[in-house]
Amino acid sequence: MASHMLFCFWVLLLFVNNAAGETRHYKFNVEYLNVTRLCHTRTVLTVNQKFPGPRLVAREGDRVIVKVVNHIANNVTIHWHGVRQLTTGWSDGPSYITQCPIQANQSYIYNFTITGQRGTLWWHAHISWLRVSIYGPIIILPKRNESYPFAKPDKEVTIMLGEWFNSDPEAIISQALQTGAGPNVSDAYTINGYPGPLYNCSSKDTYTLKVKPGKTYLLRLINAALNDELFFSIANHTVTVVEGDAVYTKPFVTDKLIITPGQTTNVLLKTKPEFPNATFLMAARPYFTGQGTIDNSTTVGILEYEHPSHHNHQSSKNLTIIQPVLPPINATGFAVNFTGKFRSLGNAKYPANVPKTVDKKFFFTVGLGTNPCPKNTTCQGPNNSSKFAASVNNVSFQFPTIAILQAYYFGQNGVYTTDFPTQPLIPFNYTGTAPNNTNVMNGTRAVVLPFNTSVELVMQDTSILGAESHPLHLHGYNFFIVGQGFGNYDPNKDPLKFNLVDPMERNTASVPAGGWVAIRFFADNPGAWFMHCHLDVHTSWGLRMAWIVLDGPGPNQKLQPPPSDLPQC
């Protein structure tokens, strides 16, 4: 009897542990590493001297504790991109929004639980342009005894798209902000840190994915590039899209994709049933419609089939190499059409809990603008008489000197104001001829939302200094993309076409070039949450703002107190 009771107790304990998840400990040492690409060697900032950085693996429901130790001279923070951070805003990571940065020789422990999420996300530095090399994947496995809503793949592979600069990116953005000019562009794109054979001196620096015939591979694709949306394709292969931003999708087949910085896309690759007597290239190159300069190059990796007689290495050297066909650089039609194919599963197990009614509506213009040149200086921005800027509702966001979340929690006045405009102060023909005055306002303004407010936000691109696609990322939330279109948003006609049945749920969504996107979400996560363009040049210019969500009445609806090791400014 006693042994039976003991057995029942162990089963119960096992069940409880299963339900609660494990605690996973990681240590991230931010360190220098000399890296050579394109025959240029430079000191790169990394985590644990890895470029790209180490994988963070957890299961849905796990608690994750990461001790970040800063061994470099730069201030640093780490953002866990797409992790909801329910009531744990102190661990979100954007500098001067949820925390002061970790200074040299200091450390900070990020402590959060992964709730109701499974799939591919990623982590990256969140101060200045440090994320160009401080980044890595977050792989959230389903709970134990849970499976994918698709056939289990034979193997899983992470593919991170990135950007390489021959010179120091911090010097590049620093100089650009000083002169008001557009910053120098990157020298290469990378696949898992490697540029590939199309670049000078890089044939050895090529990523190769070795596959076997007749197998299914889950590719976890992440765009970690700094400033560029990227097309991606594998020659002579189609893939099935099954997930975006760690949300399962209704599967659809495609031979090419577009992924914006910040976004992740999981695809199933079914290899050819027999050895194909060819080697296939995978490639990524930019999508861009703006007026500035662009790194218009292509990174390439190799999809290599294992030869049946794989002892004979010569055979693979003489195979035909097949290249993929990617859309043209300005293929806005493809980009918007592809985005529109994403649909939530929207079933009982994975419901799409989109707000059907709306408490608060917001209309934000997003785009470029100018700041006047300071007196007695010359600038290299538009017309050589101004500095490039970017804004949301014509407000270019300025970082405070202490974190907004600290000021909010401790009731410190004078750090930010709560008068962020809910719509443009001066309406104009947003996608038509740009107004003569392109100057922005500068300020540290936020929107305050009561807990659980249902929000509808329409983001409208403008033609000021060129219509451009803007991938907007909202921290602390997933949101539903209920509609998108070209031209100026029509508040009377366009909502009639909104998808409130199975809209895609994401953490990063593109505002189409010369168009608009409409999103909805419940403000159910208390704290201060950054929203910004994930093209870092636009973020640096001020295309960013903050939402402050108040505590709810319940015990699990309140922002937790700050940890004792929270960095000081």
Q: In angstroms, what is the radius of gyration?
A: 24 Å
Mean pLDDT: 95
State the separation between the terminal residues, measured CA to CA: 61 Å
Give the strand order, joined by hyphens, for the main sheet.
10-9-12-17-14-15
Q: What is the CATH topology descriptor of the largest domain? A: Immunoglobulin-like
* Major sheet attributes: 6 strands, mixed
CATH architectural arrangement of the largest domain? Sandwich
Total helical elements = 6
CATH superfamily of the largest domain: Cupredoxins -  blue copper proteins
Number of strands: 33
Shape: globular
Domain tally: 3
Residues in helix, %: under 10%
Report strand %. 35-45%
The level 1 CATH classification of the largest domain is: Mainly Beta
pLDDT < 50 runs, ≥5 residues: 8-17
Report the structural category: mainly beta
Structure overview:
With 569 residues, the chain is mainly β. The protein has 3 domains: 23-141, Cupredoxins -  blue copper proteins (Immunoglobulin-like, Sandwich); 155-308 and 319-340, Cupredoxins -  blue copper proteins (Immunoglobulin-like), CATH 2.60.40.420; 360-549, Cupredoxins -  blue copper proteins (Immunoglobulin-like). It is 10% helix and 38% strand. The protein contains 6 helices and 33 strands. A hairpin with a 2-residue loop joins strand 1 (23-37) and strand 2 (40-47). The protein is globular, with a radius of gyration of 24 Å. Mean pLDDT is 95; it is low at 8-17. It is found in: Secreted, Extracellular space, Apoplast. Lignin degradation and detoxification of lignin-derived products.
